[in-house]
Amino acid sequence: MSKTTGKKLHWRSKVQDSFVPLLGTSELGIAIGGGADYGEFPFVTSAQGGGLTVGDIILEIGGTPVLGMTLGDVRGVLNSCPHPIRIKTVSPSTLCKDLRLYLSKCFTPGSVDSQLQQVIRENLLLRAIPTTRQPRDGEIPGVDYNFVSIEEFFSLEESGALLESGKFK
Q1: Where is the PDZ domain (predicted)?
Q2: How far, in Å, CA of 32 to CA of 39, rounded?
Q3: Taking the complete model, does pTM exceed 0.85, yes or no?
Q4: Considering Cα of 112, then 10, then 72, then 150, what sign does the dihedral take?
Q5: 1-17, pLDDT tens digit by residue?
Q6: How far is residue 142 from each of residues 104, 159, 164, measured CA to CA in Å?
Q7: Measured between alpha carbons, how far is 89 from 98 in angstroms, rounded to an integer?
Q8: CA angle at residue 99 from 114 to 62, to 5 degrees?
Q9: SS3 call for 9
Q10: Which tens digits make up the pLDDT trace of 32-59?
């Protein structure tokens, strides 16, 4: 007797395309949570119509990849899109919402997952990067980088607050 095993489909094959409904003159039918500042992918926390499901991981809003963005930045993208807002999501059962876990995995260079890691890292660079170096001329603390002391950096690293860490030169 032979045993057949079903191959698990990749998360990319389960991406859903939906539109966020407008409930009133300006109220959106969606609320979101997560974000890089919480170490998570952004996800739907409430949805009224539009085919979205609570818990779905948000990949794109209006064509903008939002993985690796802070919650505030994701909300900014959501609020700046023209209506109707197109949103791409995937079920949390197909993609883990923990950014640290996803970034720690090794994927084949050029694969969909490797490319997604790159998008996440690029979005993280917009806001969430602490550095122990001194600000350069024109750099604004909290905007360009979060400038911290070496002691503060090690404390963040030891507490698990950093998604990734490394040394430059």
Answers
A1: 24-93
A2: 14
A3: no
A4: negative
A5: 555 555 677 888 899 99
A6: 25, 20, 18
A7: 15
A8: 75
A9: coil
A10: 999 988 889 999 998 887 678 899 999 9
